[in-house]
């Protein structure tokens, strides 16, 4: 009963309606089907590549597969499709038309989901950029455009000028088209974000046509270990003749998205935290990708990536706008199983391992349940001791989640230091937590009374956390400060998750979106007016406003709401609403 009542206070479930997700993958295939003096049928055999690529595709499961360095031969384009994609009973893969010469770009797509409407090309040097106009099969009104490009390699002044020339042509093309949903995939051969080619894409004279890095990892990428987790080349450290070598230390491969996709203001939106450099664990800077252990993907996938190309592929997921979020519980540690370490929890004594976190045998917890307790009081000697003891959560995987919220209850008694709340990206999961980097959190309440009175922490926003992490409660006592006894209970972490379930269609529209001070809500079905109201939720699932629907055309004042992302809900239909100031 306690759990039901508690979760009803901290957890609001939002609903979604008919959606499809689209996974986009980009990969430089390294002279696929092309024989040169250095890439031969021995060290870059097409059938060997196909075997590796089958493993990779089966792991990633893309809907759109954009490639660079494909031989400009219809036979080779079909050879990949027939021997890698349309196998084992699968027959839905199609490809775009062959365009260009020598080494080309190519787009393969899942024709059950996606229809290729048309394609164009843009002049560039030394290669053209290919432009693919796509739409959803089951909803042709949802359209988007993919630019596939492979910019000039090298870091000389001339090479940088060639890259700038090609990206300037792309932006000139966009400036003369009315396109909202677009993305760019390719091996851009960029060394730093300040390079003119990248600035052309991301900071154009017309901001509305800008491309965006979905993970916003901008800086000097080349030979910089700070970007080791997003580097895509080179997968080999030793020289094998065909493959670039020297270890992985460059971010050459990208998928960039338009403002509309980044912000979810039109038909398609970028799915938060879906951008992935496949096979990149961040621990192989200047090493081969398969050197030692690499747990970012199964071992056979890591080996396939090593054998297939000197680049790593990148991917992201697009979702249909209005495919909103639901709040999900990532963990709920209530100690009622009387097991301190169940669910992946752990504790570690840095000082004084005679006194550690434990679960009292009596039900002293919140709502007369079990709880965890810690005290640095030496009862036999009636003294406070030097104690440092940690209670640590399991690793929280943020891959499909955003905006985590933490809530817990505490009770305490006697003098001493406050319980500390921290998080870490790099804790190993075992051993002394002081060997990792921890960041203190604030904005929470502790029970500071002297009679074990239970107090809620309040909802603690962890939105600053952007990667997988651990949460820890750190207890300390000393003879000088005293040994306060702390009890903790009902530690609940929730987060927003993309929900891809299928349900009813939207029965209303909101204009403008983004909005500023007023919104116009137009109801498509008049019967909704008498039965429903518009509810607005913020990005952590808290309802912030309710409006009664009185007509098919409704106007509401939202000037009191701050800038940001909201969810507008009528019945079970939810849409994203952006408010700008």
Notes on the structure:
There is one protein chain. This protein has 581 residues and is of the alpha+beta class. It has three domains: 2-14 and 326-498, Jelly Rolls, CATH 2.60.120.200; 21-321, Deoxyribonuclease I, Chain A, CATH 3.60.10; 508-579, Immunoglobulin-like (Sandwich), CATH 2.60.40.10. It is 14% helix and 34% strand. It is built from eight helices and 33 strands. Strands 1, 2, 3, 4, 11, 12 and 13 form a seven-stranded mixed beta sheet that branches. It has a six-stranded mixed beta sheet with strand order 5-6-7-8-10-9. Strands 14, 16, 20, 23, 24 and 26 form a six-stranded antiparallel beta sheet that branches. α2 (46-60) crosses α7 (299-308). The longest helix has 19 residues, at 157-175. The radius of gyration is 27 Å and the shape is globular. Residues 1-19 and 498-506 have low confidence and may be disordered.
CATH class of the largest domain: Alpha Beta
The CA-CA distance between the termini, in Å, is 43 Å
Residue-averaged pLDDT, rounded?
88
Instruction: Determine the structural class based on helices, strands and strand pairing.
Output: alpha+beta
Total individual domains: 3
Low-confidence stretches: 1-19, 498-506
Count of distinct strands: 33
What fold name stands as the CATH topology of the largest domain?
Answer: Deoxyribonuclease I, Chain A
Please tell me how large the radius of gyration is: 27 Å
* Largest β sheet strand count, sense and barrel closure: 7 strands, mixed
Number of helices: 8
What would you say the CATH architecture of the largest domain is?
A: 4-Layer Sandwich
Quaternary structure? single chain
């Amino acid at each position: 009963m306690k759990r039901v009542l508690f979760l009803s206070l901290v957890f609001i479930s939002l609903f979604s309606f008919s959606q499809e997700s689209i996974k986009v993958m980009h990969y430089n295939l390294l002279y696929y089907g092309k024989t040169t003096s250095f890439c031969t049928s021995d060290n870059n055999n097409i059938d060997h590549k196909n075997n590796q690529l089958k493993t990779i595709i089966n792991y990633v499961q893309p809907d759109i597969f954009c490639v660079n360095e494909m031989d400009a031969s219809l036979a080779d384009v079909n050879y990949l499709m027939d021997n890698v994609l349309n196998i084992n009973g699968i027959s839905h893969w199609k490809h775009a038309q062959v365009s260009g010469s020598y080494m080309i770009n190519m787009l393969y797509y899942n024709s059950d989901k996606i229809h290729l409407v048309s394609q164009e090309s843009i002049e560039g040097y030394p290669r053209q950029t290919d432009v693919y106009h796509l739409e959803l099969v089951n909803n042709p009104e949802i359209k988007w455009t993919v630019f596939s490009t492979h910019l000039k390699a090298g870091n000389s002044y001339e090479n940088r000028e060639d890259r700038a020339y090609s990206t300037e042509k792309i932006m000139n093309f966009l400036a003369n088209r009315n396109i909202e949903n677009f993305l760019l995939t390719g091996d851009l051969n960029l060394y730093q974000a300040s390079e003119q080619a990248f600035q052309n894409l991301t900071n154009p004279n017309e901001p509305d046509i800008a491309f965006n890095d979905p993970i916003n990892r901008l800086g000097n990428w080349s030979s910089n270990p700070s970007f080791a987790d997003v580097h895509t080349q080179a997968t080999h450290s030793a020289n094998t003749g065909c493959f670039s070598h020297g270890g992985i230390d460059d971010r050459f491969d990208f998928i960039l998205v338009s403002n509309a996709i980044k912000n979810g203001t039109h038909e398609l939106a970028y799915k938060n935290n879906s951008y992935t450099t496949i096979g990149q664990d961040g621990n192989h800077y200047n090493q081969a990708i398969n050197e030692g252990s690499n747990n970012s993907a199964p071992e056979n996938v890591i080996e396939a990536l090593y054998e297939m190309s000197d680049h790593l592929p990148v991917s992201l997921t697009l979702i249909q706008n209005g495919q909103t979020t639901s709040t999900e519980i990532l963990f709920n540690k209530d100690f009622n199983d009387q097991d301190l370490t169940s669910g992946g929890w752990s504790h570690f004594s840095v000082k004084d391992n005679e006194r550690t976190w434990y679960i009292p045998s009596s039900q002293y917890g919140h709502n007369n349940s079990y709880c965890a307790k810690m005290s640095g009081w030496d009862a036999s000697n009636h003294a406070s001791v030097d104690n440092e003891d940690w209670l640590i959560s399991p690793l929280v995987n943020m891959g499909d989640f955003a905006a985590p919220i933490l809530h817990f209850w505490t009770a305490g008694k006697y003098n001493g230091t406050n319980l500390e709340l921290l998080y870490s990206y790099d804790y190993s999961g075992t051993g002394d937590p002081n060997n990792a980097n921890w960041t203190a959190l604030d904005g929470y309440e502790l029970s500071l009374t002297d009679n074990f009175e239970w107090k809620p922490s309040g909802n603690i926003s962890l939105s600053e956390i952007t990667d997988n992490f651990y949460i820890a409660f750190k207890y300390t006592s000393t003879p000088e400060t005293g040994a306060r006894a702390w009890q903790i209970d009902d530690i609940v972490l929730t987060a927003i998750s993309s929900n891809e379930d299928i349900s009813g269609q939207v029965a209303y529209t909101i204009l403008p979106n983004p909005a500023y001070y007023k919104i116009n809500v137009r109801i498509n079905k008049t019967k909704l007016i008498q039965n429903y109201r518009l509810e607005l939720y913020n990005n952590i699932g808290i309802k912030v406003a309710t409006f009664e629907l009185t007509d098919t055309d409704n106007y509401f004042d939202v000037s009191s709401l701050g800038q940001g992302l909201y969810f507008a809900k009528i019945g079970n239909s939810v849409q994203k609403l952006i408010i700008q100031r």
